[in-house]
Amino acid sequence: MKLPRLVLAAMLAGALAACGAPSPGQGPRPAAAQTAEIDQSRQLLQELRAKNMLVEGDKINDYMDAVTARIDAQRGDGKSRLKTFIIKDADANAFTSGAGYVFFNAGMLAALENEAQFAMVLAHEIAHEDLGHVSAGMAKRQQVGIASAVASIGGALLGVPGDITNLVVGTAGQAYYADFSRDQETAADRLGMRYLAKAGYNGAEGAKSFAVLKKMYGDNASIFAGHPTSSSRQADMQRLAREEGATEGRVAASAYLGKTNPLRKRVVNALEQAGKDGPLLSQMRANLRAAR
Ligand SMILES: [Zn+2]
Fold first, then answer.
1. Residues 153-196: pLDDT tens digits?
2. Which residues form the signal peptide (predicted)?
3. Mean pLDDT calculated for residue range 241-260
4. I want to staple 225 with a disulfide (CB 3.0 to 4.6 A). Which of 17, 57, 173, 178 is the partner?
5. Is-contact 18 95, C-beta < 8 A?
């Protein structure tokens, strides 16, 4: 497929809860909250499709769906089915809007080094939903309004149609991400690691996904919001991997790099054309070389 040029969607990622408010714990959630999540997620998906901002119907989607099914199978009964989507945004980010919808920016897929790391980010995001963090944050987000969040996507596109010169790395949404507490992030790390381990992935390798993001963004990555310094998080994640018996298992570096490389090339081209040099691009170039 021909992949349209990448566009700025930093506002989107910020407005829609990337990474987790006080946790009511795992268990059945109020029907109203579930309905609100479904509405929000469907509306978001509809808008993204209408604006041609999703990568769909590509081989990479089939690959992502297979990994998604492995994680989904570990979540237990009574959950919304896990679904993943790719947004044409070169920023390295991922977030959930609830109802089992997890969105990956193309830049995140390009930056990660193997399937275990991708599975870790996915498992962490869906763990926020399964722990009730997304619905707990719903009221706050509704004050911001899904409509204005979605409108900001349109605004970005209308302002720079098909252009990525204004492509930025995680700025607009920082304050919003910070709504997730340190406790919530820690809980999502633990449950995410459990899913990863049960799915047969190498958790010690999966935990390195956070090291990859730290290398690019320092402690300022949206996904780190609410966390202690990422170096202590790394140590915590490695401890979790040991506790869950996940120091070995599936890594699948060549499969991941091979499947994601066509998309990675486009992300790299987009960043180069925009004159965006730096650790993000270096990481992606290293992955391009490793895939050969
Ligand atoms: Zn998180």
1. 443 443 333 333 333 333 333 323 336 688 888 999 999 999 99
2. 1-20
3. 97
4. 178
5. yes
> Which candidate, 194, 182, 42, 11, places its Cα nearest to that of 105?
11
Rounded to the nearest angstrom, the distance between the alpha carbon of 292 and the centre of ligand 1 is 32
Confidence of residue 243 (pLDDT cuts 50, 70, 90): very high
| End-to-end CA separation in angstroms for the chain | 21
Q: 224 C-alpha vs ligand 1 centroid, how far in Å? A: 7
121 CA to centre of ligand 1 in angstroms: 9
Dihedral pair phi/psi, residue 16, rounded to 5°: -120, 35
Give the predicted TM-score (pTM) of the model: 0.81
Contacts of 63 (CB under 8 A, 6+ apart): 255, 259, 260
How far does residue 234's CA lie from ligand 1's centre (Å)?
Answer: 14
